[in-house]
């Protein structure tokens, strides 16, 4: 039986670059040949979430949401638009960051859909955060003498938003690679505005846990942290802020290694991915670094 992978993301009517990472990750996965079909669907762009299943012919479809946390879109919007017959968020049996997979029939196409948890809560996203730090510093062994800030949106309306950030910050900290690791937020404490108050290390790498660059990562965070007074004038990498060198990495979702997370999500759900995980990790590594464990 043929199998398809569908990557679903938010997209944007206002920012044409919002969907670029999704297309690029799809291309990376497509090149491995692990799936007969690799498709993309969006909430705010075409093909729409409502129509995306019709763009693939496979009877077996693995859907991976390129979202950071479990919440409104992954729990309500996407299942509704895909018309997953009998969808119940309880089938994920999740504590807010542990959604794995739940399988349904698509009501209008009859396809078997393995609906996976979001990319942002998968264990391999920790590797992507670390790789993002390597990429922005152009140093595959970066760590000694560096602090790492994992930054998320955070919101009082959805406690799961912060859970994903905390989860990965804890996992990076456990590796004992960076001198300091902190989870910071835009809309709750501890706030990223006060970034330098939370670090003693002179060099701090700031990695925002967002799938695509947009208003928050390109405008809000650079100005709030003090990288620049006006995002339109740009900023240096690293930029000096309060005596610290801040290495701003931009959205984690633009890191090519994110394609690996999508493949691993599908593999965890039962997809036969062959050597795709190894291939993606090798094809996306930066010069001088080994594939992550």
Structure keywords:
single chain; 293 residues; alpha/beta; Rossmann fold; 2 domains; 5-stranded mixed β-sheet; 7 helices; 19% strand; globular
Your description of this structure?
The protein has 293 residues and is α/β, with parallel strands linked by helices. The chain folds into 2 domains: 148 residues, Rossmann fold (3-Layer(aba) Sandwich), CATH 3.40.50.1400; 130 residues, Rossmann fold, CATH 3.40.50.1400. The chain is built from 7 helices and 10 strands. The strands form 2 sheets. It has a 5-stranded mixed beta sheet with strand order 2-1-3-5-4, sandwiched between helices. Strands 7-6-8-10-9 form a 5-stranded mixed beta sheet, sandwiched between helices. Helix 1 packs across helix 6, helix 3 packs across helix 4 and helix 6 packs antiparallel against helix 7. The model has no long low-confidence stretch (mean pLDDT 94).
